[in-house]
Amino acid sequence: MRTISIYDGSVELQQLRYVLAVAETRNFTRAAENCFVVQSALSHQIKSLEQELGFQLFARTSRRVELTSAGAAFLPSARAALDAADRAVADSAAAVGQIRGTLSVGVIPTVTAVDIPAALGKFHRAHPAVPIRLRGGNSDAFINSITNGALDVAVLGLATSTPPEKVATEVLARERLVAVVSAKHRLASRRRLRLRDLADDTFVDFPEGSPGRTQSDLAFAAAGITRAVAFEAMGTELILDLVRQDLASTLLPPGLVTPSAELATIPLLDGPTRTQYLAWSSFNPTPAAAAFISLLKTDQRRSASSAGVGSDHS
Q: Which is an annotated Pfam family here (predicted)?
C-alpha cells in the first residue's frame, strides 16, 4: 500500500481520507458513509493514526466531534498529501494518454464569451472518467483559487485597464458595456448615449469593489461623474428585474440582455470596456485542466474562423 512518511512512522493515504471526511462532516457515522466503509473500521484507522502521531486529531463526545488544535494544524498537510497523490496518479495516466483527476472550473455570472454548459458537456463526453466541479463567484476570488491550487480553470471578466496577474490567460472577448434602462425611461428611445446623459440616474450594480462593477466605477470616475448606486445585487437576473420596474438603470455587457418590450439597451460612446479571459495556473496546470483549455481554445478558433467566413460573404 502506498504510504507517506511522517515523523518515524508511516501514514496510509486512506487514513488521511478518513481524517478529511470526519473533519468535513464533524460526524464519524456520516464520514464512514461518505467513504463507503463501516464506522468501526474508520474509527479504528483514525485511532491508529492518532497513536502513530502521538496526539489526538479529534475531540470526541457522544454528541460532538471537533478538531483539536493539533488536528487543525495537521489538516492542511493531510489535504496537500492527498492532492499530491491524486496529482501523481493523474500525471502518470496523462503520460500514457489517459486523462484522470478532477476538473474544477470557476465561472463569473456575466460570462458571454463561452457556452460553459456546452463546453463541459463536450469535455465530459471526451473524458467521462473525470469528475467535473463548477463554481460561481467573482474574478478576484477565482484568481486566488487558481494560484493556491484550489481551482483549475476560470472564466474572468475584468476592466480592460486591469488585466489579471499571477495566472496564465488567454483573451476570450473584449466588449463595451451598454446602458440598460426601463422602456419607460426618459432616454429609452435614444440611439446612443454618453455617460453624462446618465449622471442623474439611480443605478443598480454589482457590490462595491467587485470586478463586475469596477469597470463602470472607473469609467464614471474618468468622466468626472459621481453616480448614485442605490441597489446592489450579486446576479444579473435581479439587476434586470429592478431595471424593468424602472427603479434603476445599469450598465451590462450586451450579450446578457435579452431584447424585450420592458427593457431598452443603448450603446454608450464612452462606456466602460471589459475583457473576458480564460485563466489557469501559470505554474503547473493539471492534465484535466490542460485538456479543457485545449478544448476551449480549439472551439474559439473554430468560432473565429466561422465568423470570418461569414463576414467575407456579407
A: HTH_1
> Which CATH number characterizes residue 109's domain?
3.40.190.10
- Asked whether residue 165 falls in the same domain as residue 279, the answer is yes
Kindly state whether residues 287 and 162 are assigned to the same domain. yes
DSSP letter for each residue of 21-75: HHHHHS-HHHHHHHTTS-HHHHHHHHHHHHHHHTS-SEEE-SS-EEE-HHHHHHH
Same domain (yes/no): 70, 127:
no
**Position 311 in a domain:** no
Quickly tell me which residue has 512512522 as its cell.
9
Give the end of a domain, one of 67, 95, 123. 95
59: domain CATH number?
1.10.10.10
Query: Contact 193/266 with Cβ under 8 angstroms?
Result: yes
Let me know if 86 is exposed, middle or buried by CB neighbors in 10 A (0-12, 13-18, 19+).
middle
**What gap in Å lies between CA 284 and CA 93, rounded to an integer?**
16
Query: Nearest-CA neighbor of 121 among 301, 295, 286, 256?
Result: 295
pTM above 0.70, yes or no: no
Least Cα distance to 148 among 99, 197, 79 occurs for 79
User: Over its length of 314 residues, how does the chain's per-residue pLDDT go in tens digits?
Assistant: 444 434 444 557 788 888 888 888 888 888 888 777 888 888 998 998 888 888 888 988 767 888 888 888 888 877 776 666 565 555 544 444 557 778 999 999 999 999 999 999 999 999 998 999 999 999 999 999 998 888 999 999 999 988 999 999 999 999 999 999 999 999 999 999 999 999 999 999 999 999 999 999 999 999 999 999 999 999 999 999 999 999 999 999 999 998 899 999 999 999 999 999 999 998 878 888 999 999 998 888 777 666 554 434 33
Strand, coil or helix: what is 176?
strand
Kindly state whether residues 113 and 86 are assigned to the same domain: no
Which range marks the domain in which residue 117 is found?
Answer: 103-172+275-304
